[in-house]
Amino acid sequence: MSSASEQLNQFGWDEWFDAKAHEKGSAEHRLARVVAVDRDQLLVIDESGEFRAKLAGRFLYMTEQSIDLPCVGDWVCIQYSTSDMYGIIHDVIPRKSVLRRKAAGDIIEYQMIASNIDVALIVQACHFDFNVNRLERYLVMVRNGHVHPVVLLTKTDLVSPETLQQLIEKIRSAGINTEVIALSNVTGEGVNNVREILQPGKTYCLLGSSGVGKSTLINQLIGRHILETKVVSGTGEGRHTTVRRELIILDNGAMLIDNPGMREFGILGAEEGMGDSFADIYALASKCKYSDCSHSNEPGCAVLSAIEEGSLHRAHYQNFIKLRSESEFHDLSYLEKRKKDKAFGRYIKSAKKDLGITRK
Ligand SMILES: Nc1nc2c(ncn2[C@@H]2O[C@H](COP(=O)(O)OP(=O)(O)OP(=O)(O)O)[C@@H](O)[C@H]2O)c(=O)[nH]1
Ligand SMILES: [Zn+2]
C-alpha cells in the first residue's frame, strides 16, 4: 500500500480494496470515501478533509445500472482541479459488502442503501417489537450482502430480567448464534457493551423497525463536535451549505452509517417478501400437480399452463423466476445451510453419545 492510501485506513481502506483498485487499474487515482449523497452531488472524505464531488460525464454515460453509481460508504476514484469547486468522480472501487433492497415493482431492480459495511447492528426492542422471524429475515439480508450481524435488544428497562432471558433463549432455539447485546438507552445498561465492539476504521450501521431506539442509541454514541459540518470546495476553499452527513465518524474512529434508505430498509427489505408482486403466480402454484413444483418443466404445472393459455404474461413469469433465483435461492440456501448445520450438530452429539464420549 502506498503511504497516501495508508492514510485512508482510518476511513476503512485496507488491503482488500487496494488489491481491487490495482486489478481495476485505478491505483494511481486519488481515492475518497462517500459520506453523503444528495441527488447529483456527493460529499466525500479523504486524508485532507471533506469535499463536494460530482460524477464525471463519461462515468455517468458508461454506467448502465443505478446500483453501479456511488452510494454512501463507497470508495471512489476522484480528481480535484483548482478551477472547479467540485471533485470529479471517475469510478467506484468494487464493494466489499452491500446493503441493498428490491425497488418496488415487478421489474427486478435493486436500490443501494450503503456499501462497505463491516457490521450491521440489527435492533429489536424487548418490548412489543421482538420477533424472531423478522430477525431471521434481517439476518438473511445482511449476510447476503456479506455484512457481519450483531443483534441488539433495546429497552431492557421495560422487561424483567427473566423475560429478557426468555427472549435470548428464543433466539438461540431458532438456531441463531449471532452475538446478542441487550441494552437500555434509559438506564444506560449495556450501552458500553455496544461501544466496546465498535472498532476504529470499521464501518457499522443500525437496522431495525421504527421506534426501537436507534436514534437514541446513535446520539449516545456520537460525540457532540461531530455534528458540526465544515464542507469545503474541491480547491479546499470556501464554505457551502450543509449536506446531511450519512457516514459519521465516532470519537474512537469507528464509522456509523445512518441514512434515510436504512430507515426504510426494514419495511422494504426484510419484511416485504416476494408474495405481493407475485400473488397471481402463488395462487396458480397451489394448483400444480406436485407440491414441490419448480414451475419450470414439470407435468401438470398450473403456472406453465397459464402461460400457454395466455392468462399469465411470460415476462411476469420470467421476473418471478429471476427474482427467485437471485433472492429466495440465496435466502433459502442460508437458512437451509443453518438447519443442516444444526442437524449436523445433533448428529455429532448423538454419535458421541453412542460411542460413549461425553463432555468432561
Ligand atoms: N424505555 C425505553 N425507551 C427508549 C429506549 N430507547 C429509546 N426509547 C424511546 O423510544 C422512542 C423511539 O426511539 P428512537 O430512538 O427515536 O427510535 P428509532 O429506532 O430511531 O426510530 P426511527 O427514527 O423511526 O427509525 C423514543 O421515545 C425514545 O425515547 C430504551 O432503551 N428504553
Ligand atoms: Zn408448477
Automatic annotation (TrEMBL):
Places the protein is found: Cytoplasm
A Gene Ontology molecular function term of the record: GTPase activity
Keywords assigned by UniProt, alphabetized: Cytoplasm, GTP-binding, Hydrolase, Metal-binding, Nucleotide-binding, Ribosome biogenesis, RNA-binding, rRNA-binding, Zinc
GO terms (BP aspect): ribosomal small subunit biogenesis
Record note on cofactor: Binds 1 zinc ion per subunit.
Keyword flag Transcription regulation: no
EngC GTPase domain location: 115-263
Gene Ontology cellular-component annotations: cytoplasm
Family in the record: Belongs to the TRAFAC class YlqF/YawG GTPase family. RsgA subfamily.
Name this polypeptide is given: Small ribosomal subunit biogenesis GTPase RsgA
Organism for this UniProt entry: Geotalea uraniireducens (strain Rf4) (Geobacter uraniireducens)
